[in-house]
Specification:
The chain has 202 residues and is mainly alpha-helical. Helix content is 69%, strand content 10%.
Length: 202
């Protein structure tokens, strides 16, 4: 049954991410393991989407967790809540630029574990959806809530949302104490390079 397979895939992903976070904490290698975690998000997101496309026709539904979630194959040509629907290349450019900025923050600024993992999850989810937009022109969604009226979403969306929430907590609670100095160091280097410019910045 496709619903059971999707649940199994999500459970495996959750276990892998949990193990990665545990190993990262033990070995103090959050950046390495978070990259591996982001890669698994992309892999499972791609697999679940392929599973849905292979087993459900557009608009067709299947049971997942009765009373809570069902599967429904939907093609989303826009962003959240189908905003910017049809603006394929604009969404691709916006997503690519956003991912580039987050990757820069990930490697250059953020050092706190919560910040590192939050960015990795958002990047992993963003890459999963970007692949759809580039290859298909739309994003395959499949998770539909039964208990509230909410747009259909996918695995990548879950991790983008969770990562964004974690990033907000990180910024409000830890950024100033742990990583603000990294931003200041880069600004100082840029100013120094500008001062050392033999052309005087012209």
């Amino acid at each position: 049954m496709i619903g059971n397979q999707v649940l199994l895939d999500l459970a495996i992903l959750a276990v892998i991410l949990g193990l990665a976070i545990s190993f990262a904490k033990y070995r103090k290698m959050h950046r390495f393991f978070s990259v591996m975690g982001a890669a698994w998000v992309v892999i499972v997101d791609r697999y679940v989407k392929r599973l849905i496309v292979a087993n459900l026709a557009l608009g067709e539904t299947a049971e997942l967790l009765p009373g809570f979630f069902r599967l429904r194959r939907v093609h989303n040509y826009g962003a959240a809540w189908s905003s910017l629907s049809g603006a394929r290349w604009l969404l691709i450019i916006i997503t690519a630029v956003g991912l580039g900025v987050m990757a820069w923050l990930f490697f250059k600024i953020v050092r706190h574990p919560l910040g590192v993992w939050s960015l990795a999850l958002v990047i992993g989810g963003g890459v999963g959806n970007l692949i759809d937009r580039v290859k298909l022109g739309y994003v395959v969604d499949m998770l539909e809530t039964e208990f509230i009226n909410f747009p259909v979403f996918n695995v990548a969306d879950i991790f983008v949302t969770c990562g964004a929430f974690a990033a907000a907590v990180y910024y409000l609670k830890y950024f100033e104490k742990c990583d603000a100095k990294n931003w200041e160091n880069i600004e100082s280097k840029d100013k120094k390079n500008g001062t050392d410019d033999p052309d005087g910045g012209e």
